[in-house]
């Protein structure tokens, strides 16, 4: 085998072409990993929201909470069913909720987009992952107050602490920011159920019932009862399944990202191939000398492929490192007719995809130049100047 230091020396000698190829490969990997991190962040926000024992109860035939409507009296009866878990105070972990969509302006003249406002009961907070107030305070029922997340306050007008959100000519003062483990709950504005119903001129309005079962068996039994019992005849779907259905939006973003990455990779492969073709042309005499010294064609093939992969791998590592400042950066997209906020996530899996992408570019971009190198006639190669 040809020593690896031979390839390293050649990359150092041709530092200008090496640098240009590394930078172009790094740019492609950077753009691709950003797409992967964007998709991973959205998928995480939807996945972490679903609890194994939680059910979302909707009107039969409804696909989501926005299109659902329940009778409040019947919705209240759900909390009396056996098999529902209790909180620390002995209350059923069952929250009657009302969800409405408002069209509100983004900050910095970013246009208008749909905003989810959720009216819920106190126990509803315990049904969200790791809910906690991180700034300000929690809302007080009856005072037309609201809470939201920092990311939503940064993206929408009138959602910062101290500002007032208008709902049907009723103003809700934002009194605090909350976190919920980066889940989809952080894409909403929360207020008291009764306050939101009064503001919307529908005091008895209910969109859904969110509950937690005591066990997986009880969850399945509650799901069957709510769907089949004539008292209810509702649609009860597990929370995990509900948010998995919403991941179709995340899949669309992922496919778009792969298409964009494909075009970029195609261009980067040409850059790597051109670099290696130039290397073969300028080192014909070296190749002939290596053959004369007894190195086999497979050794020369492996050497040139290794050089191409090393070249792109350097670019890939540079591109991955360049994405790290974006880790945790908040952004948003439209999901189920409203905006959902989430953060870029560049974990080990996403970064490994970037590195593998770079290796693939080196392999595919270097194979043809490497084959050309091994096909050179020894005598002809030694006569090259």
List the helices and strands and how they pair.
Elements: H1 4-13, H2 15-47, E1 54-59, H3 72-78, E2 94-105, E3 112-120, E4 132-136, E5 145-148, H4 150-155, E6 164-167, E7 170-179, E8 188-192, H5 193-199, E9 208-212, H6 216-228, E10 234-238, H7 239-245, H8 248-282, H9 284-292, H10 297-323, E11 330-335, E12 338-343, H11 348-374, H12 378-383
Parallel strand pairs: 3-8, 5-7
Antiparallel strand pairs: 1-9, 1-10, 2-3, 2-9, 4-7, 5-8, 6-7, 11-12
Helix pairs in contact: 1-2, 1-10, 2-8, 2-10, 2-11, 8-11, 10-11
Structural write-up:
- α8 runs parallel beside α11 (348-374).
- A hairpin with a 6-residue loop joins β2 (94-105) and β3 (112-120).
- The protein folds into two domains: 4-47 and 248-383, no CATH class; 54-212, no CATH class.
- The mean pLDDT is 83.
- It is elongated and about 90 Å long.
- The chain is 49% helix and 20% strand.
- Strands 1, 2, 3, 4, 5, 6, 7, 8, 9 and 10 form a ten-stranded mixed beta sheet that branches. Strands 11-12 form a two-stranded antiparallel ribbon.
- The protein has 385 residues and is an alpha+beta fold.
- The protein has twelve helices and twelve strands.
- The longest helix has 35 residues, at 248-282.
């Amino acid at each position: 085998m040809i020593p690896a230091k031979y390839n390293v020396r050649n990359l150092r000698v041709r530092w200008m072409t090496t640098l240009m190829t590394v930078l172009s490969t790094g740019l492609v990997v950077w753009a691709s990993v950003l797409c992967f991190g964007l998709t991973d962040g959205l998928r995480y926000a939807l996945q972490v929201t679903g609890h194994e024992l939680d059910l979302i109860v909707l009107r039969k035939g409804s696909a989501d909470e926005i299109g659902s409507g329940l009778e409040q009296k019947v919705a209240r009866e759900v909390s009396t069913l056996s098999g529902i878990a209790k909180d620390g105070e002995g209350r059923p972990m069952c929250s009657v909720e009302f969800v409405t969509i408002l069209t509100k302006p983004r900050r910095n003249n970013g246009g208008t987009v749909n905003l989810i406002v959720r009216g819920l009961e106190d126990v509803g907070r315990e049904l969200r992952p790791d809910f906690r107030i991180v700034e300000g305070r929690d809302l007080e029922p009856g005072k037309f107050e609201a809470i939201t997340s920092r990311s939503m306050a940064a993206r929408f007008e009138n959602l910062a602490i101290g500002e007032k959100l208008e709902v049907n000519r009723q103003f809700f003062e934002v009194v605090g920011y909350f976190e919920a483990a980066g889940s989809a709950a952080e894409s909403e504005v929360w207020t008291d159920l009764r306050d939101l119903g009064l503001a919307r001129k529908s005091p008895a309005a209910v969109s859904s019932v969110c509950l937690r079962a005591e066990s997986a068996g009880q969850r399945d039994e509650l799901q069957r009862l709510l769907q089949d019992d004539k008292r209810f005849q509702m649609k009860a779907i597990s929370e995990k399944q509900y948010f998995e259905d919403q991941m179709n939006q995340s899949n669309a973003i992922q496919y778009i990202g792969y298409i964009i990455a494909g075009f970029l990779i195609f261009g980067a492969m040409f850059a790597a191939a051109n670099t290696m073709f130039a290397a073969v042309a300028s080192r014909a005499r070296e190749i002939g000398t290596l053959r004369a010294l007894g190195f086999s064609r497979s050794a020369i093939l492996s050497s040139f492929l290794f050089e191409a992969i090393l070249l792109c791998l350097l670019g890939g590592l540079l591109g991955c490192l360049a994405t790290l400042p974006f880790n945790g950066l908040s952004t948003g997209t439209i999901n189920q007719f409203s905006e959902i906020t989430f953060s870029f996530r560049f974990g080990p899996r996403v970064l490994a995809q970037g590195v593998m992408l770079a290796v693939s570019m080196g392999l595919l971009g270097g194979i043809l130049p490497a084959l050309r190198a091994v096909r050179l006639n020894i005598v002809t190669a030694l006569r090259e100047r």
